[in-house]
Amino acid sequence: MSRLEISEGQYVLDGAPYRIVSGAIHYFRVVPAYWEDRLLKLKACGFNTVETYIAWNVHEPQKEDFQFHGMADVAKFIELAGQLGLHVIVRPSPYICAEWEFGGLPAWLLQDNQLQLRCMDPLFLAKVDRYYDQLIPRLVPLLSTNGGPILAVQIENEYGSFGNDTAYLTYIQEGLVRRGIDVLLFTSDGPTDEMLIGGTIEGVHATVNFGSRVAESFAKFREYRAAEPLMVMEYWNGWFDHWMEPHHVREAADVAEVLDEMLEQGSSVNMYMFHGGTNFGYYSGANHIETYEPTVTSYDYDAPLTEWGDVTKKCKEVQKVLGKHGFEPGCPLPNPIPKYAYGEVALSESVALFDSLDQLSEPIEQTSIQPMEKFGQAYGFILYSTWVKGPRSRQQLHIQEVRDRAQVFLNGKPLGVVERWNPLPLEISVPEEGGRLDILVENMGRINYGPLLRDPKGITEGVRIDNQFQYHWTIRTLPLQPNSISTINYVEREIEREDELHSIQGSTPAFYRGYFTADQIGDTFLRFDGWQKGIAWVNGFHLGRYWNAGPQRALYVPGPLLRVGRNEIVLFELHGSPEMPVISLVDQPDLGITSQLDERVLNFVQDE
Q1: 138, 202, 445, 565: least surrounded by Cβ within 10 Å?
Q2: pLDDT of 151-169, one tens digit each?
Q3: Whole-angstrom Cα distance, residue 403 to residue 435?
Q4: Strands, DSSP E only, in 466-509?
Q5: Domain spanning 4-324 has what CATH number?
Q6: Residues forming the active site
Q7: In angstroms, how far apart are the furthest CA atoms of the chain?
Q8: Between the CA atoms of 147, 152, 153 and 158, what dihedral angle is there, to the nearest 10 degrees?
Q9: Does domain 343-350+488-587 have CATH number 3.20.20.70?
Q10: Domain spanning 357-478 has what CATH number?
């Protein structure tokens, strides 16, 4: 039994002064078979603690449907960390940000227009209480006061960046205590007046988050908490990527220099991230500063460990700094995980989306447009269809408040794309006999940070031609989960000419399936050269989104998702296949920084 306490301006553990040197690893971004590998690499670098968020939407994806197994088995992850000799910091939501879909909040909260997020709203608090009643009892046996590895637990997350309802923060604090959390509680916020005023609670330990300007940030913190130990709960040592932007890289020497300055100041630190992992499935979030910016599938973060778990130059530089301050490797470094190039895979089976609708969904008749949450849908796609009377000549089709990207079809032929970040109208001409209008909308991730957090998906206001709103719609929800994907009836085609399949499917959305054989199992990377935009599954596991807009050019496929023998790949491609529907499984990643990979990825053993 241990307890982390604060005494005379420093942390004390078991009666002795203690410094936390932590790295962030999110269990929900790593396949469970690799949890041990990532944790051991953290320990081998010199860290004594691992920090993880807990994502509410992972554990209650549907209302009152609680999940705590597989990648959602947070208790198993914490237990494993303890068995490996690591302490644990837990940040249990309800909101986490983390560039994670909706900041970790479950999408079904948006079904109720009256519910207010992250404040003393009874409707919201009732949902939090129900969730905590399931989550917190799983954490209590793992507290250090009960012999487990959890030293500290966070209250909410960066609340000062959102609001000033400190009564809400106190409610969360009291809820944790009432359910048995008796370890050190803390808040974390940016080092500004606004954030420290809004996000801290009197009598609760406060920590700060930043990536540079150490002296300035600590000076601002000291204005509010002069007698508390310094703790950087998020030292941003890299950054995340949005689609249509360059890949972010931060120099290893700069990261090491700032870390050294933090430790010289006597601070404890949590490195965000030590290992970023992957936004599998639909879980990548989005930001909205000046415009909507969706996050890529990779959460590599330019962290000390790559998305696929390899040690980098940055990791070595961090280890040197930790060693300088007395934090030596706690174990040998695990061997790198093997990677294999399984070669090209022909996706010779296909079927158009519009030919598969009856297998994937039931039609819903509605007078007016509504977003997907109103139909109990959280993720994926939603299809709005109606009959437009003619004749109409060169009018303007407006989709009001599309969330986030709409493909428009008239009588089955592509009319154009309307994007949230570029919501221009499309020209439409309708013959005298009329025409069928289909609008397929993709949810590209809910906003995870800031004042625009409430982010329903689909079409949220309406569709009009010039100033005339269109009514009477047939709506189909298309979450495209593994259970529905397995019902699709494909047609296998003998591809005799390079353009044969391309001409059959054209540029409309379609599913493509193929198989490859693996004689040995290791990590691999799925490349999409010639493909445009869509999502991918391997053996029924949803890898995430791909898009030729970059910077990400390949999806990481962890070896535990594969099996010796036959393996299945399914793509849902939104704009039609290349002339030859082939993908490649390669042994090298591509994050848009190929020229820097050799410098970035180093193996400790080889280098030493």
Answers
A1: 202
A2: 999 999 999 999 999 999 9
A3: 24
A4: 468-469, 473-478, 491-492
A5: 3.20.20.80
A6: 158, 234
A7: 85
A8: -170
A9: no
A10: 2.60.120.260
